[in-house]
Design brief:
Layout: H1 4-7, E1 10-13, H2 19-29, H3 36-44, E2 48-53, E3 59-68, E4 71-79, H4 88-102, E5 107-113, H5 117-125, E6 129-139, E7 145-154
Parallel strand pairs: 4-5
Antiparallel strand pairs: 1-2, 2-3, 3-4, 5-7, 6-7
The structure holds coenzyme A (COA).
Coenzyme A binds near residues 29, 30, 112, 118 and 125.
């Protein structure tokens, strides 16, 4: 039997009213989650945020993007744990590219932790190519730092 809660996500623009829900997901899926201040500042800066809601209108995936001239910078991208492994990241990347094309951006840039093999594989499948490394870009366990792989794809 089809599980409609999982198979019929609706795509929506996100705003301040979504931050509590986003924070719950963020703290579940990231070792070093963004804070409420990070999300509030992003929205106050006018950065776009979109996501998927399930059939009960619960948010379960989101992305935040920042424009830099003609390039879109992917700041945050997540799918809530119970919804992972079902192709939602791929669908959300499709939406990301739709948005970038509609808005006239020529490319999308992102950073991803070197250890995040799953996300790197998803981005590669979506056509992103590694273009560089930012040494020690992310905080890591025990006061260590972790490199970011920088990836880009033309729209
Ligand atoms: C990364 C993330 C967005 C993926 O979301 P998802 O909905 O589970 O992804 P999908 O189901 O669309 O795709 C999963 C794919 O990853 C592959 N995969 C799973 N684990 C993997 C691993 N360890 N290494 C490589 N590929 C892996 C699956 O085989 C699948 O590939 P397929 O589409 O060819 O079948 C999600 O795990 C997440 O939110 N993680 C925490 C936040 C995060 O890391 N965000 C990215 C920051 S840059």
């Amino acid at each position: 039997m089809l599980n409609l809660k999982l198979t019929s996500p609706s795509y929506c623009k996100l705003g301040f009213a979504d931050i509590d829900c986003i924070l719950t997901i963020e703290e579940r899926v990231y070792t070093h989650p963004w804070t409420r201040g990070n999300f509030t500042d992003s929205l106050l800066s006018g950065y776009a945020a979109f996501g998927f809601r399930d059939s009960e209108h619960e948010l379960f995936a989101y992305f935040f993007v920042m424009p830099i001239l003609d390039e879109l910078h992917l700041l945050n991208f997540a799918v809530d744990s119970p919804y992972q492994g079902q192709g939602h990241a791929r669908l959300l990347i499709d939406k990301l590219f739709e948005y970038a094309l509609e808005q006239g951006y020529v490319s999308i840039l992102l950073e991803v932790r070197r250890s995040n093999e799953r996300a790197i594989a998803i981005y590669q499948k979506a056509g992103f190519a590694a273009i560089g490394v930012r040494k020690g870009y992310y905080p890591a366990h025990d006061n260590q730092r972790e490199d970011a792989i920088v990836m880009r794809r033309a729209c």
